[in-house]
Inverse folding.
């Protein structure tokens, strides 16, 4: 199969590199078009009021690779219209550094937005994210181009699972269905992993911006948000699946918006 791959953590993210290597190992044809710098929490924004630049560069991925100084949505839109010479079977976005689970994350995620841009072009789309402990998350964010050996081995396992599962999802998804498959992989990720059908955990995300020391400005303060228990306790949420070491597969069907 042919895949366009993007992310929101930027071209230097080894999480992206490991997913591409897994896809190539499985025999797929891949083109990568990724942001030059991190674009986390940018949602589906596009760079409307400035020129966006792209450049074909070698980042050791063994496949055609372009870098765009814009958002994940910019990357996919420009890639499909101007950069890659073929139409992909699907658009893949990730693997994200950290989970994209619960409503508070899904609606703001640049990773999911990259996949959504593919869906807007009528293509099957999959977003994949790697849950991490807070300690490992901070460690990875401090050195995005380097991974401790144990973390790299874990993400490589996740990438292998994500490559196989996302290829099956793309094959099963009808074009122009406006569906994004949102995958979240647990940490640690086992050798054998089953993805469970989940729904987004309802969550509140208050107090993301906290007062700075000088009381005159505000700075971003990361927090997970407060999960609200589901009224129907028979449905497994994405966050609950991750907490119990299971893979999460949430179908985000944007074609159903507005239908009762």
């Amino acid at each position: 199969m042919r895949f366009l791959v993007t992310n929101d953590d930027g071209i230097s993210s080894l999480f992206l590199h490991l997913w591409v290597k897994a896809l190539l190992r499985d025999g797929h044809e891949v083109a990568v078009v990724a942001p030059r710098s991190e674009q986390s929490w940018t949602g589906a924004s596009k760079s409307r009021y400035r020129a966006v630049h792209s450049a074909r560069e070698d980042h050791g991925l063994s496949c055609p690779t372009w870098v765009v100084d814009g958002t994940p949505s910019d990357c996919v839109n420009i890639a499909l219209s101007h950069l890659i010479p073929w139409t992909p079977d699907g658009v893949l976005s990730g693997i994200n550094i950290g989970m994209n689970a619960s409503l508070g994350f899904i609606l703001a995620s640049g990773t999911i937005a990259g996949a959504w841009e593919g869906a807007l072009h009528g293509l099957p789309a999959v977003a994949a994210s790697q849950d991490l402990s807070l300690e490992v998350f901070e460690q990875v964010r401090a050195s995005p181009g380097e991974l401790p050996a144990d973390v790299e081995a874990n993400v490589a396992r996740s990438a292998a699972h994500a490559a196989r599962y996302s290829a099956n999802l793309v094959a099963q998804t009808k074009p122009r269905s406006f569906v994004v498959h949102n995958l979240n992989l647990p940490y640690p990720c086992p050798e054998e992993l089953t993805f469970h059908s989940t729904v987004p955990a309802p969550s509140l995300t208050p107090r993301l911006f906290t007062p700075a020391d000088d009381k005159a400005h505000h700075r971003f303060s990361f927090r997970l948000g407060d999960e609200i228990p589901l009224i129907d306790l028979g449905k497994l949420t994405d966050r609950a699946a991750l907490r119990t070491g299971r893979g999460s597969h949430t179908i985000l069907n944007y074609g159903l918006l507005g239908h009762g």
